[in-house]
Amino acid sequence: VRKVECIYSFDTPESPDGLFVSLSNYQGFGNSFVDLDFQRSEFPLYLNMRWKKIPKEPKENQEAEAPTKMAIGVEGGFQVDEELFDYEKSNFLALLPDRVLIPLPNQELPELISMVIDGILKASDLTEDEAQVMAWEDKRQVSKYAQNLVQVNNGKKISPDPKTWKCEESGMTENLWLNLSDGHIGSGRAQMDATGQMSGGTGAALNHYYEQKRLGNEFPLVVKLGTITAKGADVYSYAADEDDMVEDPKLAEHLSHWGINMMQMEKTEKTIAEMEIDMNNKFDFDKICESGKQLQTLSGPGFVGLKNLGNSCYVNSVVQVLFSLPDFQERFFKKAPEIFQSTPSSASADDILVQAAKLGTGLLSEKYSKPAEGSEGAFVSPQMFKFLVGKGHPEFSTGNQQDAFEYYQYLLEKLERGERAKKGSEQLLSRFFEFEIEERLQCKQSGKVKYTQSKEKQLSLLIPLDAATNKDEVQSYEERNAKRQKNEISEAEKEEPVKAHIPFDACISSYMKEVVVEDYLSPATGSKGAAVKSTRIKRFPKYLCVHMRRYVLGEDWRPKKLDAMITLPETLDLESLRSQEHQPGEELLPESASGSASAGPVPDEAIVRQLVDMGFGENGCKRAALATNNASAEAAMEWVLQHMGDPDFNEPISAPSGQSQAGSATVDPDAVEMLCSMGFAKHHAERALRETGGDIQRASDWLLSRVDELDAMDVEEASQPAPQPEASVDYQPQYDLVGFISHIGSNTACGHYVCHIKKNGKWTIFNDRKVALSEDPPISMGYMYIYQSKGLK
Fold first, then answer.
1. Which residues belong to the active site?
2. Has this prediction a pTM greater than 0.85?
3. What is the SS3 assignment for 136?
4. Which of 126, 169, 207, 593 has its CA 20 to 30 A from that of 104?
């Protein structure tokens, strides 16, 4: 049942004419689209739901409390707008085409019709029921070690006086962690500062855990002294299968073992969440969201906000930037009526192109561009779109915060599948973002070269912290901040953080620099030696996505944010990145050492195993090893971090071209029969086995992850449209910045996303439902940027 919102528009029961829900297909239609459904179905009965807003009594002014957790819309977190209205609900039976309205309930209606109406009213809306709408929060899991935690009876008791606490190894008196199993007090791990350096701890608590583990003891849980209050404390699990902040439901009991009474403790240090919030609330949040400024609210077509569904700011930011591009507006706004007309009502809610057209119409038309009563700006709710895009995806189908960059990649892939299934003659939208990479590899033994091409939809750039132009200022700030944490400087003397300033040219130079590949097996000499590899762009796209790799693995293999300021220009010239292609006088490397077809390279198992142990998928790790010519685990890790968002990252690796294709075309009949017994069609089972090299377990996973897309894939495979000539078009490498997305938070699994878009020559901030004229766009703090080429080459 779809009874919350029209499947073609953002009309709801709150709209002037309400929402019409068909008693035949149970889909909801706004006033502008109910006639379209009636013409198709010729079924005249609809439940017309109408809700009238009734203002709530205003609450007394209360001073807002400072946030204490990394969350939005929950107690203790950043607060968002709350509903200011209650609703008076009326229902009617509508008879089409004359729209005769019969008030409900009505005792004279046939029993069957009354039963259907009652069923619709009681049913939960499909989108709301399955979307798992949650508040944004950096949640912690309950440790599995807490229930039966070993606690040693060694006679040790911990004084409640913080002045007596110190690291048993170094004597440090800050960032102290108590091991709940044996009472050891040790310094926490060093933290990465704005320069990328590790400081603020010795890691004694972690070293103690490893030492005890070497002796056969599993003592994983530690609590941060100074954060203990009656409400809880920071607890960390060093266990390899958790290695994260956790909840300990028996914390009071575990602390009492060491003589600590939670109810009497007072906090003397900031929790991990409060340290993150302190940075976000005082600097990033203010800068990126332009808080504290009297921004001019904007409304009208193209200035419509998107409601935050609890964790949809990553969706909202990506969508707003993409739908500001001319090709998206042409496809999903101007041609929206054609898409609506060509798709049956029963299939529209699950059609990605229909839902994209609905969203485009909502953002760009006049209809929803005026603020509703009691609202500062105009906005729509992308609930059906978010649900459909995420359906079947292990991450985007949840209510958790996600990586906006990964969502951008996945959304383009999802739209491409929908376009292929419709067999349209237009250029695929994803092709406008696609560019061709050329990699040049030169064997140092023979001097011969090899050129390989690949396609990308994003330019991912490393952030070279050693290129900071203000190293001294950053170092000085870090020293002052360290004293401040030791209470050598008063809280009143706090200052705005000093972040490393990195020239964008340094990021481009890092991308262009030659990389030495050790132990390269040269097909020219047949022996291992050094090779040099460099990357350039052979063909430029119309829209260039520049992704700043702000999130990397630190020395402790945990995600870290490189919180630097990068001076990206609003006008970009990338001519220096253009490839020179094969030059006269260069001799090409042979395809293989023997000069004949071979089975192709094999990924180094040691490298693959190291990456798999870090939690990455095996197929992706194999790709990384092959892409770096089995150079080293470090080189492969760099490749993983750059490509882990690729749509085919975890897909099985295709057989090398030198291998016989006959084997790949033949599948085990018994395996096919087993998959068919699970309910899959024979041709689907055969394709899954071919795609996964005959591995029945992987084939099963392949099918289950695509269960909603198999029919569309059949259409795509059968149609095999001719190559589109536009796909090879080359654009000028001169670009204008269209928009950028910024992230607030320590990692992409929590935090908040905001985007800024240049419209009519002026920057506009899109912060979920709030749209306003930007006074100071934080271009240097962006996470991903979209540039538009000045034209065809």
1. 313, 752
2. no
3. strand
4. 126
